[in-house]
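User: I'm putting together notes for a lab meeting next week and I want to include a structural view of one of the chains we've been expressing. I don't have a solved structure, so I'd like a prediction I can at least talk through. The sequence is below, exactly as it appears in our construct file.
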Amino acid sequence: MIDAAERELLRHRAVRAWDDAKRLQREAARLVSASTQTLRVAEGLQWEAVGLVRASEALRTRSPESRTGNAVTYLSPDAASHGRTVNSALLEALVDQTIRRWDPGEEDRAEACGQAVGLMASINLPTLVRLQQLAGRQLGYVVGAHDAGAALGLAIATQPDVSIIDTRLDVANGSDLTAVLPFYAPRTRTLLLTDDYDVAAKAKLAGADVMSRRFSDQGLLSWISEAAA
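Assistant: Thanks for the context. Below is the predicted structure for the 229-residue chain, given as structure tokens.
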């Protein structure tokens, strides 16, 4: 189990890492914006080039047949390839809001009694309630979230001993959350609930344990007992 002094140090480092990540995200957004502006300028120049070529053709010959083809091609606004964008602004807002609202009172009382801290996350309310009830039998302080933003915010704020993440989350999926947790909560033991072989393999490479979403109560309690020791 993580002791109080180490948890506070981890929390401080995680908040700084999150601030750095937001700064880098803003810088990346500015670069994308600058690139988009550059592309628009280039498109404008190409359009002008097309006009100049056509004007030159018209001056050289009066034959309409000689002007049937374009001498210069151009990029249309739709020609640029745009990947699927992630709503990073929403994720950032949820993380920041969660960190601001976090109340350390219950966590402090749990630590004073030598009890561990846990984070549960699932978009499915019955699953989330079940996870919290089971974890509450063995942990002193348990927090829950139904979206990846709140879950990441709680991981940063509480630095839990254990986290149990369902692949089904709002904003981002549990696999994505599991992949970044080691950067913000390096001492947290994480269990990902999934029945997808590829997702499970990816989670294991990130250092997480894996269990079926059709888990048994005893199986989950055994994992919590071992992970929180």
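A couple of points you could mention at the meeting. Residues 63-86 have pLDDT under 50 and may be disordered. Residues 46 and 52 are 10 Å apart (CA to CA).

User: Perfect, that's what I needed.
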